[in-house]
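User: Structure please.
Assistant: Input sequence and predicted structure:
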Amino acid sequence: MSSGGEIRVRLDKWLWAARFYKTRSLAAEAVEKGKVEVNGERVKRAKLLQAGDSLRIRLGPYQHIVTVRALSEKRGPASVAAALYEESPEGRRAREAMQIQVKVAQSVPGYERGRPSKKDRREIERLRRRD
């Protein structure tokens, strides 16, 4: 497949080794659903990556834009995984802006807590009696 000592790794294996996904099957599923692009194109999970390829990875509301720096078929510690890629500055800024938006959206008060407590019910009754 590759000539002259050029190493290539399957996309799903690399995504797993770089710790973007917990399992290879999750990585393969994300590729099949179009959540991963290589050099701006939708690809299959068996696509062979090489150093210098550009990846766009969507994980939930976040989008990672990374350049492949090294290749690995083995999953190692996070420090080793972080050396496999370099995140672009604009991708990092966009992801950090999205983190702030998600935090703000989660901090909006509401009734996500479930039923009102006894204290809450007393407050509601007290407010109703005033009207």
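The chain has a mean pLDDT of 87.
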